[in-house]
Amino acid sequence: MRRLYLDKKVQTSASGIAKHLRKKRGIRADVNLVQRVLLEEGMAEVCLNKRVRKRPWVRYERTYPLPAVHLDWSTGINGSSLCVVLDDASRKILSGGEFDRQSAETSVKLLKEALDKYAYIRKIQEVITDCGSEFHANRRDKEGNATHPFEDFCKENDITHILCGRAHPQTNGKVEKWFHLYKRHRSGFNSFEGFVYWYNCVRLHMSLDWDNLETPEQAFWRKLEPVVLGNFMELLEKEVENYEAK
Predict the structure, then answer these.
(1) Domains of the chain by range and CATH?
(2) Where are the alpha helices (DSSP H) in 55-202?
(3) Strand partners, 84
């Protein structure tokens, strides 16, 4: 492999050489391997400024589904506006749709839909959004208060509204990642509902139980098992108490 490119006239990086080998020579060369060979032959130098120890990768997610959801808007197909409510623990889409325009009223509608659909299991306690006008009033009084449909709905239903930091979309990264997937694959489905079904129930998700090829739908119910069991035991205890009271 070394004889293929040990020419000091080649002024390119390891990634450039690897790409050349793939494109021109048909050799599937790994960038790290190319870099290692260049270092051995004295054709590259180690940049000490880049040798920074990486922090351990930490996954921030709730243990159980439903306590926290992500809600955001993006651009849908054919000029539509797209909005979804995504569960933090399982990545399942709880509600969503493609609409003519973005609005606070539709944001409330989708959050209420998710809240009502799963209230029999567990109540949504937190909703994570950006600071867009669909979720947050930009004009506020001196005390920081304002009247806004989405904020009012959260207060009325005792839901904590968590705002992402401005210019910091990573806080809502799970739903941003979903939007990226939507833009890649939505055209292959006849309807939004068909795409969501494929995402929730068919597509395997690498951030879940990858060893068991888990989907968001499967993760949602797997992670809910302790909650459902707890609800059942609580109901059973109440039934016993009522029976003994008689």
Answers:
(1) 2-50 (no CATH), 68-223 (3.30.420.10)
(2) 104-118, 149-156, 173-185, 192-197
(3) 72, 96
